[in-house]
Specification:
With 320 residues, the chain is of the alpha+beta class. It has 2 domains: 95 residues, Beta Barrel (OB fold (Dihydrolipoamide Acetyltransferase, E2P)); 188 residues, Hypothetical protein af1432 (Orthogonal Bundle). Helices cover 41% and strands 17% of the residues. The chain contains 11 helices and 5 strands; from the N terminus they run βββαββαααααααααα. The protein has a 5-stranded mixed beta barrel with strand order 1-2-3-5-4. β1 and β2 form a beta hairpin. α3 packs across α9 and α6 packs across α11. The chain is elongated, with a radius of gyration of 22 Å.
Length: 320
Amino acid sequence: MNRTNILDLSDGQHLEQSFQATDKQLRVNRQGGKYILLRLADRTGVIAGMVWNADERIFESFERGDYVQCCGRTQVHNGNLQVIVTNIQRLDPSDVDIAEFERFDAEKSGELRARLAELISQMKNIHLRRLGEAYLSDDDFMAKLIVGAAAVSNHHAYPGGLLQHSLDLMELARVIGPRYPQLDVDLLTFGAFLHDLGKIEELSAGGEVSYTDRGQMVGHIVIGVQMLGEKIASVEAAGEPFPSDLRLQLEHLIVSHHGKIEFGSPKLPVTLEAVALHHLDNLDAKLASYTSVIEADVAADGNWTNYNPSIGRKLWKKRD
């Protein structure tokens, strides 16, 4: 039976097809009954699944990351489409077409990597250029970067999303930076490259995007600063001293890019480049996140999405 991609599912649709169960939680409702909350995925997106009247036997019959055959139906709940699963069984990977679940685009990743190298090679600041080349020549680091996700959900939450997000910010820095003569464009551009690199260790690199133990206990901001220190040390070990003031500027760009203490930044942005980076990062993340809301919306009204509680509004989605 042919699959219907998650992106193409509609309300009230009967389903009997495969998904990847990227997450599962066994929960108890107010009446004491047990149910399973699922995160089901394919190459086009992610959808929530609910298995009512569940038990430990069903919960333990498959693992996170397994491919599963689901019978059930779709329904809209609080403005979001979900799958009510009446039967779920683990599938052997040999019984599924992996291409239907693989979200990593190797060809596009190669293009992004080439553009990253090009942007770094164009930097006038020799110290930043050499530091960038040290990252690019680190095969282990680059292997993780090209498949890394930028988040578990919301924006760029797919293999390769981290490289896409980082490169988009670098491109924005190159466009916006020259409009403000008081900005150091190379510094801003390199900060855009660095700001989320800790996520290659914070998030898992496999098909299931989830937090690693290090990610839960340390977080990508601290990890990113640690990685920067290690890379600067490798540059200096090769006989190239790195200016301490420039290192401080780079560290600040990483630790302040969330913009506010309550948003997870250890420090508020206090340099012009840090202020610019925060707002560019927020712009790119918001546009990617809101675009996902529009694409996944199942509202009958063709002009507007359903009200989304997480952003406190409906979004206009009509396109000419």
